[in-house]
Design goal:
0% strand; 132 residues; mainly alpha
Length: 132
């Protein structure tokens, strides 16, 4: 498996989410029919900062061997993030009736990344050589 593609796509995805949540929290909330108080706005902006930070880490590590001693912690962080998020989204999709297309898209993307990082986690480092 070429982990470079996985790292680049996850970095771009989280970067887009991070920029949106950091700089457009009120606009995103209004799209979903909500008005934010100052604490909710701050929470979305801090979440955006986390996404941007994780995106930068993934981007910087795109050439690293993900199964190696230095790449394994990064892989586990990504796996936990995408797995827990995909489970939360699956639970939410079953309950929500509005904005289902967006939620289903996010659920599919998060689940795909969880599977990708899960495969990397279960694979031998010899099979994960990042091709440049």
């Amino acid at each position: 498996m070429n982990t470079k593609i996985l790292m680049i796509t996850s970095a771009v995805f989280m970067g887009i989410l991070g920029i949106g949540l950091t700089f457009l929290p009120n606009e995103i909330a209004r799209y979903f029919g909500k008005e934010l108080d100052i604490i909710s706005q701050l929470t979305l902006q801090l979440s955006g900062a986390l996404y941007l930070g994780f995106a930068m880490v993934n981007w910087m590590a795109k050439h690293n061997l993900m199964g190696g001693i230095y790449g394994k912690p990064l892989n586990i962080g990504n796996l936990v993030h995408f797995l827990v998020s995909s489970l939360a989204l699956i639970k939410l999709v079953m309950k929500v009736e509005n904005h289902t297309a967006i939620l289903l898209s996010l659920t599919f993307i998060y689940t795909a990344f969880a599977l990708g990082f899960g495969i990397v986690f279960m694979s031998s480092p010899r099979n994960l050589v990042a091709k440049t």
